[in-house]
Amino acid sequence: MTTTTTTTTTTTGAETLVPFEKVLESYDPAMGLEVHVELNTNTKMFCGCPTRFGAEPNTQVCPTCLGLPGAMPVVNGKAVESAIRIGLALNCQIATWCRFARKNYFYPDMPKNFQTSQYDEPICFDGHLDVEVDGETFRVEIERAHMEEDTGKTTHIGGTTGRIHGAEYSLVDYNRAGIPLIEIVTKPILGTGEKAPLVARAYVAALRELLLGLGVSDVRMDQGSMRCDVNLSLAPKGSGRLGTRTETKNVNSLRSVERAVRFEMSRHAGILDAGGSVLQETRHFHEDTGTTSAGREKSDAEDYRYFPEPDLVPVAPSREWVEELRATLPEPPAVRRARLQQEWGFSDLEMRDTVGAGALGLVEETIALGTSPQAARKWWLGELARSANESGVELTELPVGPAEVAAVQKLVDEGTLNDKLARQVFEGLIAGEGTPEEVIEKRGLALVSDDSALGAAVDNAIAAHPDVADKIRGGKVAAAGALIGAVMKEMRGQADAARVRELILEKLT
Amino acid sequence: MTDLTRKTAAELADLLAAGEITSVQLTQAHLDRIAAVDGGDRGVHAFLHVDADGALAAARESDERRAAGQPRHPLDGVPVAVKDVLTTRGLPTTCGSRILAGWLPPYDATVVAKLKAAGLPILGKTNMDEFAMGSSTEHSAYGPTRNPWDLDRIPGGSGGGSAAAVAAFEAPLAIGTDTGGSIRQPGAVTGTVGVKPTYGSVSRYGLVALANSLDQAGPVTRTVLDAALLHELIGGHDPKDSTSVTDPVTGLADAARQGASGDLTGLKVGVVAELAGEGWQDGVMTRFREAVDLLVKLGAEVVEVSCPTFVHAMAAYYLILPAEASSNLAKFDAMRYGLRVSPEGVAAPSAEEVMKATRDAGFGDEVKRRIILGTYALSSGYYDAYYGQAQKIRTLIIRDFQKAYESADVLISPTAPTTAFRLGEKLDDPLAMYLNDLATIPANLAGVPGISVPAGLAEEDGLPVGLQILAPALADDRLYRVGAAAEAVLTERWGGPLLSKAPTLEATL
Description:
The complex is a heterodimer of chains A (509) and B (509).
Chain A: H1 20-26, E1 27-38, H2 77-89, E2 93-94, E3 101-104, E4 114-117, E5 124-133, E6 136-149, E7 153-157, E8 169-173, E9 180-186, H3 196-214, E10 226-236, E11 246-251, H4 254-273, E12 281-286, E13 291-297, E14 307-308, H5 319-326, H6 333-344, H7 348-356, H8 360-368, H9 373-391, H10 402-413, H11 419-430, H12 436-443, H13 451-464, H14 466-473, H15 480-490, H16 497-508
Parallel strand pairs in A: 11-12
Antiparallel strand pairs in A: 1-9, 1-10, 2-5, 3-4, 3-14, 5-6, 6-9, 7-8, 10-11, 12-13
Helix pairs in contact in A: 3-4, 8-9, 8-10, 10-11, 11-12, 13-15, 15-16
Chain B: H1 9-17, H2 23-37, E1 47-50, H3 52-67, E2 80-83, H4 110-118, E3 122-126, H5 160-167, E4 173-177, H6 184-190, E5 193-196, E6 217-221, H7 224-234, H8 252-260, E7 268-272, H9 282-297, E8 301-305, H10 313-328, H11 351-362, H12 365-378, H13 384-407, E9 410-414, H14 430-434, H15 441-446, E10 450-457, E11 464-470, H16 476-494
Parallel strand pairs in B: 2-3, 2-4, 7-8, 7-9
Antiparallel strand pairs in B: 1-3, 4-6, 5-6, 5-10, 9-11, 10-11
Helix pairs in contact in B: 2-3, 7-8, 7-16, 8-16, 10-12, 10-13
């Protein structure tokens, strides 16, 4: 396997990939997930600069977040509050006293050439989050959730890799420097076997849902406000040991989390099967191919020379405050799911599929806009899930939201559309053809509600199928289906089948 | 007009208040004095940068306020010099280093902002050992400052510029910073008054950090009362400095006035056994013992106290300081401000290569020595043995102080073991240089306040000796009460202010 740090290959090169099912015959996977979440505080972690996403580069900066000589940090109380609420929601202990440390290393996007981060004294520790995969509950143990600051954002111009090596020059935007981050680190996740990729995905999805519910972050994986690093190792089946791990950085969608685990399991197995040993290193994930490639080698020799940040006093949240914050926690996701399932009358399977597709919130919002639970579920898990899957995006990333789904379903309920036409409307919406009304207009999708036009089509159908008409006249109402089909065919599907049936029965009985 | 430079700040404040002089006259007198004695090969070289235009503009505004009957502060219009380690908006701030050549800070340190808000014209920035590392000001990248008592001798350090400026009557007031004695030791060897306030009682925001947990800004003056007036002005809580204490900094001038009456009845003075003995210059010890006797005559009771851990203070200090400094100085990497050097013979240098070349060219030997020491002390595997142990020593030193203050209200010692040595004498012997701070370092490690007041001239060389007085944290007023009493009785003993015995400097240009 390659050990160069500048490789740009996105193919698997000479690596042998073991088919996923085969991996499990010989190995047990162990995972560790590190999730960085940007908090949505109004100001940065250690200064008063605004945190608005997408501002002109280097316009949201000050002496402190630029690391100018003499400037000093002050802890953002709101960020501490968010950290504690996250910790409580993850069933963590909250430290009575903890400090920030300096993580020292040189990099141009680090204004001070050290990152102010919690190290051996995290504010939250020893928690857990239960996640469900195919009806089975997995408890993911949380080792810690700690506060730190984001670095600047570097864009490397020139060169072929988009990385610093080989670039002609680099641009640094310090707007991101100092944005509050919470890093949530799991303990090794063991015993997941073939479900490892799904558990990883379900964990990140559940964490995302929990953070959304807390209102502490935008958790936009596409904008980098939630970033996941996937640690993975394999050990011989049943050995109970932990193998050498790789850390795949910046896996930035739920689907990619699943794919990264799957790919690394196959790749590790290929190396181990061939008698090789896995190199402990950082890997880059490639969204387009679902593969990883070697990044810089990560060795334990990397020495960050941590020591307590002498410019900050310890954070010592009082127990009273912690309890006040506990009282502000929203309904836990599991409790919420149980409540919604009952309210909506979903079966266990329906509920599981809804949660598994990451559609719970979308369905809930759609229902809140007046759509029936079954209709909301039908669209999100059917047409829309299919479409998202085809284009490799999350449901939330589709250009169709709860408002559009509710609007389309309303048109179905009113008889303007039928399901078949509604699917075409969604197709148009996803293609960016405008509002539902505009798509209907452009594509000419509305049902024909003019009885005279329908009546003519019914007459034609009766004339073309006299035997069927006779059966109906003789009382076999069920035979009407054949005539309805003929009418729908003539109307190219743009007719309300129920109304057609009424017309046929009116004429023949 | 030149006699205005011989007056104390308190006297100048009275003259301004009485309308007998203007701030413009006063400021111009000091600018003239600077022009006469500071420059040239044999000049004092207390200043790295003189801001004549800015100072005169501020003086004019001050005069307008006085004319309108709206002075902002008793010292409104009295000029001040500022050590070049505090940021000044739009004025060069080099910290005595080449690496910050040409940098114009976009913001004022809180201390500077307070001076400006009170209406004190800032004459300029004073010389210092590079990044405050040194005891002689010889480590300035811009050449040494000379001691006004003997131009071939050092003015102490790191704040030799501020002390010499005040001693040479180039400024009535100056700001220094004290990490291990950088205010007090220069005060001792130039026959001036220097105060290191309680850690956290003067804001460090905008003080370019040497060692964050030790640094403290304070007044440099010719009299104890002037120091008290300046200390009250710059002290107080600052929300931009998390380590800033909330206790008000008041009552210091009152304590100085009370002390000047000369009655110390009931005061217990502890003589620290560990801060005397072998290696201490005879003339220094003679003046010290004489000062103790004079305090007894004023009614003080003298007790001997032991602080056994003080013998380890130097070792702990030279681990903690370099550790913090190595991290603080990482930000000087040519990426955002200051010097940028391209490596020779490299066509398209990488960011990393530019960082290396800049830091190699921009830092002096003493700075590099301490960066290497600190990096080593924080390294994985050595942290506990060095930095960790040093922090334990620090705790023991704090306990030594606590115990000593059980039997004494203040502690006293000579400020420095010797009088001013010759330029170049200890430049090649870092350990000998470090030993000069033996008596001043414990106060920084414990965060307690200290003052150095002139104790007379050593018999063997006719050079000034300093008396150090230390008080418990937040009891800075005791420094002023005892300091003013000692000043009064010693002035009487020497037949006038000590500085009246210093050579009158000839114009050097």
